[in-house]
Amino acid sequence: MSNTTFDADGITLEKVREYVWEIPREGDMRVPARVLASEALLEQIQDDKTLEQIKNTTHLPGITNYAICMPDGHQGYGFPVGGVGALDAENGCISPGAVGYDINCGVRMMRTNLTYDELQGNERELVDSLFANVPSGLGGGGIVEAGIDTVDEILSRGVDWALENGHAVEEDLLHCEDEGMRKGADPDKVSQKAKDRGKNQIGSLGSGNHFLEVQRVTDVFDGDVGEAYGLEEDQIVVLIHCGSRGLGHQTCNDYLRKIEKQHQGLLDQLPDKELAAAPAGSQLAEDYYGAMNAAINFAWVNRQLIMHRTREVFERVFDRSWQEMEMDLLYDVAHNIAKKETHTVGEDGDQRELYVHRKGATRAFPAGHPEVPAAYRDVGQPVIIPGSMGAGSYVLRGGENSMDLTFGSTAHGAGRLMSRTQAKDEFWGGDVQQDLEEQDQIYVKAQSGATVAEEAPGVYKDVDEVVRVSDELGIGDRVARTFPVCNIKG
Asked: DSSP assignment, residue 326?
């Protein structure tokens, strides 16, 4: 292996420049594939089917420039997690597999004016109270039980519904991607079965890698941007990571089955049927886009309700109002989504409307972009990168190279190193919990020990390295780092 190529079990990557590797176009590939990674991360990325999957995505009709894998990339369903694919919205297609089952899985961070000193001594009470009050785990149980009419309203209006019903304040909407409401959401395109699965899960974390974590800010790397984001060292913040629950999963499943029936011709052209896509302009593409936008709204309301409940828990534990504690939303960003966006494409610099699929990738628009909320437009969009429950997380800002390199995207987390099954073989939940508490003063509470084992810090890539590569490439710049204090999981 020379320094200009990287051989990964039959796939050769060529180094374009530092941290940018390319799988050249061959055979039926429509564009090259690019992997944004250091050699240390590439060594890990090559261990599963990530490279094969990113290569497969280049076969999707209408894909432009190149398929991109982020530094946290790992194997997913058809399309790798950490993948970005921009497909022409007129002549291309939209792929439910390239969005994923958990539509608008994403993260939101809430600031507080509490310091770590003020919180110490309350960790056990706080983790117990959050666990008791924020529904988590598999299956039903949410913060609001709703009939189908309410579900339809949530699907249609997003966080605007939460505002009207006393679960949000105006500022929450202003600090959310798309102000918490996707236009073009069509509740009628979401199946009855999906709505039935969702109606008892509004305001719930679910299971797997979803969590609510109380954190302390350990480092601020950029004082000016940190100030614009309202972040300072030793401050307590809250991070919420979850998505659209059973409703989103069912929606993805419904449309994959429909595509298999209606667009078999397109499916036959693809190297992996899990990349199933509906041609742009087809009725099914329009229907899926309407249903996906509705599921996106559902996920935003889900995170909003959890945040509202968290405010109430803090009020009880610290005996003052959440307003006094300045528990304001910093930002909410999606990382499983396909959005119609206009980007500059090709050597001629054409402006084209594209379905930008980000699966396990975060939008990272730079300063001055009109879609960045007014509060942050001068400094760039906040990007939140959760690490593992033993390694802390990062706040970045959209970097000035993101539009050229990644269609305005960066990584979404640390990225898994091992499967859940492997994790349960290697780790014991009780030991992980005990070690975190004794060594790092991190208090973890979960529905089962198996969940803790599956999410042990050793299961993940090095989030510091993932973020370093993002920062070096100028797609997402480091602003602050946080470290866990309390964590609840499904």
From this structure: T
